[in-house]
Here is the input.
Amino acid sequence: MLGVTFISFLLMVYFGPDKTYELLGKNPTEEQIREVRHELGYDRPFLVRYGDYLRELVTFDLGLSDSNGEPVAAILARTLPVSLALVLPGFVIGNLLGLALGLLAAWYRGKWLDKLVMSASVVGMSISFIVIIIGLQILLCTPYGLNLFPVRGWQVDGPGSYLYYVTVPTLALVLVTLGYNTRFYRAVMAEEIERDHIRTLRAYGASPAEQLFKHVLKNSLVPVLTRIMFSIPFVVISGSLLLESYFGIPGIGLVTFNAITSGDQPILKAVVGLTGILFVVALMINDMLYSLVDPRIARP
Amino acid sequence: MMRETWQRLKSDPYGLSGLIVVSVFFLIASCVWSGLLGQGWYEVSGTRWEGISAEHWFGTNLIGQDILQRTLFGTATAFEVGLTVTICSTLLGTVMGALSGWYNHSWLDEIILWLKGVLDAIPFYLFAAAVAFALQGSPWAMHVAMIVTFWTTTARIIRGEVIRIKQRGFIEAARAIGLPGLKTVFRHVLPNTFHLLLVQASIVFVAAINTEVILSFLGLGIQDGVSWGLMLAESSQEVLAGHFGNFLAAGTALFLLLMGFNLLADALQDALDSRRIVR
Here is the structure.
């Protein structure tokens, strides 16, 4: 946690863009330069500035955005729900579908169904996110395809318009994650199916559904949960960054993208710091879930 | 071991086709580097948005540059990024992994593990943006960002393998005859991790090309020259007006190369490791 904030501070604040000369007019005097640098806090020692950054993060006093002067905390509060609404369906569907296909492939391991699913997932892994987005856009949003959904934008005021705007990004997110998810879940499940107790179950004549859901799935929950929890921070930030900047959806990703292109430091600092916090929280929840699904882990 | 691997790879039709696809692309890239192909990527040789013709196989773009030339040149860009990132991050990952595996439970191991944890926790695109800032828009910022973040997986794999190999008899023998630690690592431990490195390197290559496309699209990638990512970025506006040249050319080339590499990586993994679960 401290590490994340430290590196982000080092990169973005200490070596980051120097705003001194933007604020000054032409031909500033020595005196003026020193004054502005003092105002921005550039002349204070390294550790003091780092401490300030940490305090800002902890107290959510994140300062004002450089570009429009709005408080950063307010921007985040406005955009975070939009991003969650955007990526959540794709994230859930992508993982559930991957889990289902992984189970299916592991069950029919070595048969044609397995080979079909695995070949499809290699194809899925080979298509770039951007190609998927543009391709879906051509197929679903333009007169050259079905022209069913909007090309870009986000004017949500009810379930109907939510579906109208969220479908294409969701499809893109599902398609891009499905290949990786399926392969991962299949490997996990295939290992579990090989275990002795599953073979015993089969010998006792347990139904496939009972074997798969009650025993295989339950016993492989630890790696599955780990993967899901760890991908949350990345899907929320990285996934929405691309989707939102492409579809022009006013979520946290678009804000970050604009902050990247315009060099809006307070926003970038806040986003990186908060992702670090999100990551640590995900880690903690993950540990708690571990002891829930596998009581052996809880005991030291 | 290499000959046996090659035999197994040859008998795998998917792996072999992957190898062929990658080789063809590499040949194209070499021709671009040596000046035989794709040299006219910046010339305006036609009018805007020309369709497919004998002169312009894939049509022309917004300002009348030939898309075929740009696609060919993009191949070289992809290989340049892929090779640079793969070689550097694999070397870095190997050294870090070997150190932390050999001296595991020491302070060095702790520091390297901590560093890995930190780097894995930062969202990559933000990190790339931050590196671009720190390096003041240097054209190498993208490469640096990828190298600095991609070595962690390699290091994790190598660390585990080194810890495993360390227990084996021949390492004990090396220690018994008084071989210094680091020499043992580089002479006797690391060569035994080669098969893992090869597979991991091909996975890193795929990730590097994929990431280059996304970073170029976001405006953090290739600064001079042309890449498939830049072509896709161009095409995102054009497709709405019905001009698919850039999208189809760059998208197909990218898909073929990535597919080739994925198939090759899978086949390598199968050929090098007889008891593998997938497939």
Notes: The CA atoms of residues 141 and 149 of chain A lie 5 Å apart. The two ends of chain A are 24 Å apart (CA to CA). Chain A touches chain B through 52 residues (CB under 8 Å).
